[in-house]
Write a structure and sequence with these properties.
globular, mainly alpha
Length: 161
């Protein structure tokens, strides 16, 4: 996820207007936080199963493909190259986060509810930092609020037993 986050950060940053530079902090935290989590997971995390490994490989392949596609689009001087790559990387991010969504449904006690709540609140606050709305800049912010909000909802909902 850190690699994908880095790709999202680069493509988001290159599309960003100078008026919206304040919104860069959430994408930066989405690169740093997964790196810290990955390092702790190596030592203390759950054992990875084959399906998790396959998901990681799929995310990596999508990210590498997006780098190649980005290079081709820039070489061909296609103006929407960065936006296309941002959307591809958001897809890759969702693929990587999909197991967390499933885990939030099946085993919500295994996720940190308050951590997700704080991430949702931070994402909502970051929406207010957008001073000039453009699809290329707001799509990432809306994606983050939506996904964080959905996971938070799953973690706080009443469980049917």
């Amino acid at each position: 996820m850190t690699f994908v986050g880095g790709m999202i950060l680069v493509s988001y940053f290159t599309e960003m207007k100078s008026e919206n530079k304040d919104t860069i902090w959430i994408p930066i935290t989405y690169v740093i936080n997964p790196l810290i989590i990955a390092l702790f997971s190596i030592k203390y995390g759950e054992k990875s199963d084959r399906k998790s490994f396959e998901t990681d490989i799929l995310c990596f392949k999508i990210s590498i493909t997006s780098i190649i596609l980005w290079g081709i689009l820039i070489y061909l001087k296609i103006g929407v190259a960065t936006l296309v790559i941002l959307i591809i990387n958001l897809l890759s991010d969702f693929v990587g986060l999909y197991p967390t969504v499933i885990k939030s449904i099946l085993r919500p006690e295994s996720e940190g509810r308050w951590g997700w709540m704080l991430a949702t609140i931070a994402s909502i606050i970051n929406i207010f930092a957008i001073s000039e709305w453009a699809f290329s800049e707001s799509v990432y912010q809306v994606y983050i609020v939506t996904l964080n909000g959905y996971i938070t909802f799953l973690l706080f909902r009443k469980q049917k037993r």
